[in-house]
Amino acid sequence: MLLLAVGLLAGCASAPAPHLSSLVYRIEATETRLSVEIEAQGAKPARWYLVGESNLRVASGEQRATVKGGVLRLPAEHLSYAYSLKSRLQRSQSLERGAGVPGSFVVRGDRYLLVPRPGILLPETRVELRFKGLEPFLPWPCVREGEEWVARLYANDLRQLGFHAFGARRRIPLQLEEGARWEVVLLAGDLLASDERIERWIQEAAQEAARLGAGSPRERVAIVLVPTPSGEPAPFGRVLYSEPRSAAIYVGQRAPERSFAGDWLATHELMHTLHPRFDGQPRWLSEGIAAYYQCLAPIRSGRERPEVLWRVLAQGVATGQTEALGRSLQEVAKAMHTLPAYSAVYWGGALLALEVDLEIRRATEGKRGLEHVLAALRPRGSVTLREFGRSVDALAGVAIWEQIRRAHLEGQALRRAKPLLRGLGIGPGGALDSKAPGAKWRLRLERGS
To answer: What is 22-84+107-160's CATH number?
Structure first.
């Protein structure tokens, strides 16, 4: 009997934990509401998560519970709730919580879709998003099946759900590098600029980001353009690290047609598709890479003269030095929003990216650059800072990362600006000196060779 009891206990201890075999979301998108029903099979999740939300009422049969601090404690296989956008569209106008107009809006997927804890999901867990009502636009392709649009995901996709748009006014076709099938939608809203001008603007930005993919641009990026009451062509935007990537960019409704020619925000945002997600979110690196390439990409494509965009970089550096007030780049990055010190972080990071690119090219005689490091890391989705540094050194064939990192992050922020830019022949106002010692390397950065 004792042996039998031991055997039973051993069997219980070794029994595998329950996992979900499938997870199906049914979403009905109406003018100002997303009604959601969730059906889980194979297990009963005890906790569900909804990023940044509280006070959302959820039902499971006769049971009721409320999301508190982003967590729903309700063991259930069936859930139903409604995510209202009415007040969000009227007041908050947040790209994450809901922006646009009734019947044509965008919201972050993990703000309205409850997801179970990751441990209950397996790679083979089947996940489906099934939509009715307003036509959806997601990071993943949606297939029309009868009255529904269906997107089939992997379990890991629930960790990064990206932007979801509904009721787009127009789809904008993009002509990109072979293998890149990026898509753009424009939400409803009157614009002073013509649709044709908006199309050219986003086309140019997308082409430049895809070309910088070092021969392997992302296969898909989903881009949502959101009209907003502003005189700026693009007052704000964001890229989320879903796979595929997704981006949402505000478009100023009062912005004149000509203003889009000199706007770089869309270019900056789409440059975030070049790099993986960095664990720990070192903003100085991710924003620095995007700021650096927002200057370099239009030069390489021939859309802008070199002196114009080197001037943008030089002026950004000067503003960043004023903001930093002697603090280190790490210090200003931690307090970027409270100082504020956005220019110090963005352009401090851009200087670091510039030096990394420059030193890789010097070490490889111009055959490789920073974009090749990013292309090698792209399939991995997310990397640590240490892994990024190892990849830099491996491609260069010599240890350069740690010295560059310390030179930029320790001590006064942007202190490397003067010797670095002057050596490349870039003056304080962006004037270019073709006789500077590193002028030939500046030209190679501009050409990408």
So the answer is: 2.60.40.3650
